[in-house]
Amino acid sequence: MTDAPTFLRQFVQHPRLVGAVLPSGSALARDVTASVPRTGHPVVAELGPGTGAFTRAVQQRLAGRGHHLAIELNLEFADRLARRHPEVEVVRGDAAALAGLLADRGHPYADVVVSGLPWAAFAADRQRAVLDGVLAGLGPAGVFTTFAYWHALSIPPARRFRRLLESRFEEVVVGRTVWRNAPPALVYHCRRPVR
Q: What is the model's pLDDT at position 182?
């Protein structure tokens, strides 16, 4: 069953929250989730999982280990994701509240935060609020990964977000362009949060 019709419908209804007309592809999902360790018992927080493109990839990397918390504002996406992935703790909530959501579940922080959020669709104050939430919930050695659509890199909100990342992390590595995604995208791998 394809998620494209659901994703398109949600985009039309909530363009500032969904931010794309199609779910991310498997090639982008592999790149975004590459920071999820294949050993140990990490806590992985996924922001804006949508219909689960990154969720599947996180679960493949975890292979039954650790704790996977998926935070989704959209009710239809959250319900669908919870039905598809009962092994994932799906929470209908705001990514800006990440630290509290983790603490409520007994986790002092996340080892990895993976984001599918539409950063370029957010106003400046929303970008800051959610990134502050990421920093509050991310461990000192944690990794934050997110992506940007290649065609939108030059628009002001995308440029502002990139500057924000560079001011909040000591290291921001830009991955290769994933041309097989629709639309093409690149991944930001962010390490050593500046507090």
A: 85
| Residue-wise pLDDT tens digits, 6-53 | 544 444 454 444 444 445 689 999 999 999 999 999 999 999 999 899
- Per the listing, tokens 């363009």 go with 15
Q: Considering only CA atoms, which of 29, 20, 78 is closest in space to residue 54? A: 29
**Helix axis angle, 156-168 relative to 124-137, nearest 10°?**
30
Axis crossing angle, helix 4-13 with helix 75-84, rounded to the nearest 10: 160
**What is the identity of the amino acid at 149?**
Y
Cα separations (Å) of 150 from 105, 122, 154, 183? 36, 17, 9, 8
Element housing 143 (H / E): strand 138-149
- Which segments of the chain have a pLDDT < 50? 1, 7-12, 14-22
Locate 16 and state its tokens.
């500032």
- Where residue 40 falls (left for φ over 0; alpha for ψ -120 to 50; beta otherwise) is left
